[in-house]
């Protein structure tokens, strides 16, 4: 079991180095076993994939937050289903939904559920059906920081709102010092970075600020950044890179991008102690989510102001968006096969090692049932 977990971690971490559009195909029998223990474990994982009639190319795009999970999933999937090539382009949630509703992709990844107008647009390419939300990946949105001489930092929603609205501009500000009485905060300008592209991560981050700090965050929210000031970068990887290389910086991105020494903020909530950005703490919050979609749509309502100890308030759920009916005949077998795998126990089992939270049992069970009925 330990060997398998280490192999899974290696697969996930190896996938982190992949950038841009992903195009992975199986390269032959040597990929899945040559007597090596790690390869044997990967072969066992791939052996649990049900390829069915899957074949050809599968185009998908959207959420950059889930890219590291997609990388790990695709590596396993194509090792088993050698007749399938999967191309996932992490263009951002907004661009992914647009590509889907224009019929350019078999499915999209989005960190926000479909809006009514997007569902309506999807009916044009989902013959006799519509686009639906399948919650597949969870996790905390980490607040990464690079403050000279500071290793541990506590912030709350009002302070974060003021930082990202350019109201608090220096790291030794009284509001930050009050939350960090033992820290040696430098006289250093704050460099706040936000997404330049339409992003479900931005949508969830601003929903949190609006819910937890309504007096300090007056913007409507959505996939596009609305506040004034600050600097921008493309994708979650772009924000993480800016934090890593820019002294005085702070930004938001999915936890799996907080690597290579990037420190993350502990968030003060109504609980007794500040909460760290961890998979387990995010799972505690996601477990309280409610399904608010109708029919086969499984859109969730998240609680951004949890009071329970250890519940991390800043979470997102990434949905795979697909037609419930009217999928293209040439891509439907591969779409169902791949989605079935990533929703399976094995697929969800890869998430924790890659820095993500698997979906709670009650939710993922509904997802599996919905996938089996795709047509």
UniProtKB/TrEMBL annotation:
The UniProt record gives the binding positions of phosphate as 63-65, 93, 111, 199-201
For region Disordered, the annotated ranges are 222-241
Ranked from the top, the taxonomy reads: Bacteria, Bacillati, Actinomycetota, Actinomycetes, Kitasatosporales
Q: Where is the composition biased (Low complexity)?
A: 227-241
Under InterPro entries, the record lists:
ABC_phos-bd_PstS, PBP_domain, Phosphate-bind_PstS
What's the protein here called? Phosphate-binding protein
The record's GO CC annotations read:
ATP-binding cassette (ABC) transporter complex
Keywords in alphabetical order? Phosphate transport, Signal, Transport
Signal peptide range in chain numbering:
1-23
| SUPFAM superfamilies reported in the protein's UniProt record | Periplasmic binding protein-like II
Q: Which domain of life is it from?
A: Bacteria
> Which CDD domains does the record associate with it?
PBP2_PstS
**NCBIfam families (alphabetical):** 3a0107s03
Which protein family is named in the record? Belongs to the PstS family.
